[in-house]
Specification:
single chain, two-stranded antiparallel sheet, elongated, 4 strands, 14% strand, alpha+beta, 2 helices, 70 residues, 26% helix
């Protein structure tokens, strides 16, 4: 493997590293409940994906809300 003959300058190193950034995940609104969710994933709040229920959400949250209202 070859070794560099000279040291790279700070600007040259930083120019190379400008492409090593992280991008934010693509978010979209859920068509069923309106919450933000990751694209191509079921909604964490209602369990729907493409207008169909695909995941059952635990009833724990609903029970806790009912107890608060009482």
């Amino acid at each position: 493997m070859g070794l560099p003959k000279r040291r790279h300058s700070r600007s040259r190193t930083r120019k190379r590293r400008t492409h090593q950034v992280l991008s934010l995940p693509a978010l979209t609104k859920c068509g069923n409940c309106g919450a933000t969710r990751l694209m191509h994933n079921a909604c964490r709040h209602c369990g729907y994906y493409r207008g169909r229920p695909v995941v059952r959400i635990r009833e724990k949250k609903a029970k806790a809300e009912e107890e608060k209202e009482s």
